Amino acid sequence: MYAMTDGLWLVVGLGNPGPQYAGNRHNVGQMVLDELASRHGGSFSAHRSRAAVAEVRLGVLPGGVPGPRVVLAKPSTYMNTSGGPVAGLAQYFQVEPDHVLVVHDELDIPFGDVRCKIGGGEGGHNGLRDISKALGTKDYLRVRTGIGRPPGRMDTADFVLKDFGTVERKELPFLLDTSADAVEMVVTEGLEKAQMAFHTKK
């Protein structure tokens, strides 16, 4: 049901706008979209739905057929108001929620791990909460990029709005690569295969 490879997909990377936020943990979703655009020769341009978008094809299907058409989108609003741009893009490109995939930072997953799911709660993530409200459903796909919990008594809000630490930055390219791989697998092979591939402890 959610493994359809026909039709257009909307893949959204969450974050906050502006260079001061670009390296924050909260912006890892947008970093993943930059990786996907780089892989597939896409370049972002402003869209009227308050987002930067790039249209690409993800992956290659059996027989060498180019993979599904995908709109990569980075909302230009702040994280907590991501819903408007996502709903606007879904309406503009006529994409149903089961073909919307949101890439976001996840505190409840250790740094370096990636998980995929559809629906469920937002885990206190205000960007997801706003998207669920705007779409009128929680039944869209998510690639959850693990950033881990803050150390000691550091406030969660402070933690997500800080850049990755020195050790993390060395591993960050691998995390972005894995997350981009997960997006491609969800789109081309379906959620279940992606879960089997990325949820299994190596």
TrEMBL record:
Entry annotated with the keyword Cytoplasm: yes
Listed GO MF terms: peptidyl-tRNA hydrolase activity; tRNA binding
Pfam families attached to this UniProt entry: Pept_tRNA_hydro (PF01195)
A Gene Ontology cellular-component term: cytoplasm
Positions of the record's site feature: Stabilizes the basic form of H active site to accept a proton: 105
Record-linked InterPro entries: Pept_tRNA_hydro, Pept_tRNA_hydro_CS, Pept_tRNA_hydro_sf
Single Gene Ontology BP annotation: rescue of stalled ribosome
Keywords: Cytoplasm, Hydrolase, RNA-binding, tRNA-binding
Site label Discriminates between blocked and unblocked aminoacyl-tRNA, positions: 16
Quaternary assembly: Monomer.
Function field: Hydrolyzes ribosome-free peptidyl-tRNAs (with 1 or more amino acids incorporated), which drop off the ribosome during protein synthesis, or as a result of ribosome stalling. Catalyzes the release of premature peptidyl moieties from peptidyl-tRNA molecules trapped in stalled 50S ribosomal subunits, and thus maintains levels of free tRNAs and 50S ribosomes.
Protein name per its UniProtKB record: Peptidyl-tRNA hydrolase
Species assigned in the record: Sanguibacter keddieii (strain ATCC 51767 / DSM 10542 / NCFB 3025 / ST-74)
